Amino acid sequence: MQSILDIDILPAQHSSVSTMAHVFINSFDLDGSVKLMYTKDEIVPIIQEILHDYMDDDAIQFRLAVARDTRRLAGWMSFGVIPALGRVPEFAFNEMTSWAAQKLIHGYASDYRYPLAAQLEDRSRHGQSLHMLRHRLVINTIVTDPEYRRLGVAGKLLRCAVDRARSNDWAIWVQTPTVYEGLFWRNGFHDVGTFGLDLNAFKPPEEVAMGVHGRQLGIQTWRQMKLGSRAESLLERAIAETAEAEGTRGHVPNPRSTSPPSSTSANTSTQ
């Protein structure tokens, strides 16, 4: 059993951007959707641009996990801080992977990569509108250098967001591929939605034309999860108790339940 890495959690600086981008592009080897949306080489300058753009914005919080023995960057995270009132950057509501893809293609709907990036963006925003109050934190990304995986780095980074949320009694939202969901289950999140996308539908045109002779990517599944605030937990408990008391007298619906969004993506702004 591997030991937990001794790390320091520090605020990010502009001088860290290059290393942060390098860690980011090496962290999604299990995420097939990322490989469809961009290559490592083309996305590096986009990630660097995003980091520089929002590094000094209070609505986006970046945290670094630095190994104490080597002072190497073991991982980093960002989360959006969305208050009840006031405007915040659109990035605060979104996941870094799909946001970076949108910036790369400049929102051009004619680009074959647009539907996948927009679909992920829309799903997250729709889920937040159903399950979250206005004031909340949104996990934009948590990434770990492959050399430091399974050493507790991501968990310590996530605690930064959890501590911030609990100090304000806010909830936290994340939309994540199911291959990464264990981190959030272990830290008290619960799922509020699940959806799958057939990645074969988002392949480049030349691969689509090959039909069954091309790559077969299969269906990838995402989990929408939240860590509720104390106020929300009390409300959900009251709803459950009311439903139980009603018994056979009638069904008490969950006020937040609704049908899932259409698979057709709209061009709205988007873990």
TrEMBL record:
<feature type="domain" description="N-acetyltransferase">
    <location>
        <begin position="60"/>
        <end position="215"/>
    </location>
</feature>
<dbReference type="InterPro" id="IPR000182">
    <property type="entry name" value="GNAT_dom"/>
</dbReference>
<dbReference type="GO" id="GO:0016747">
    <property type="term" value="F:acyltransferase activity, transferring groups other than amino-acyl groups"/>
</dbReference>
<dbReference type="Pfam" id="PF00583">
    <property type="entry name" value="Acetyltransf_1"/>
</dbReference>
<feature type="compositionally biased region" description="Low complexity">
    <location>
        <begin position="253"/>
        <end position="271"/>
    </location>
</feature>
<dbReference type="InterPro" id="IPR016181">
    <property type="entry name" value="Acyl_CoA_acyltransferase"/>
</dbReference>
<feature type="region of interest" description="Disordered">
    <location>
        <begin position="242"/>
        <end position="271"/>
    </location>
</feature>
<protein>
    <recommendedName>
        <fullName>N-acetyltransferase domain-containing protein</fullName>
    </recommendedName>
</protein>
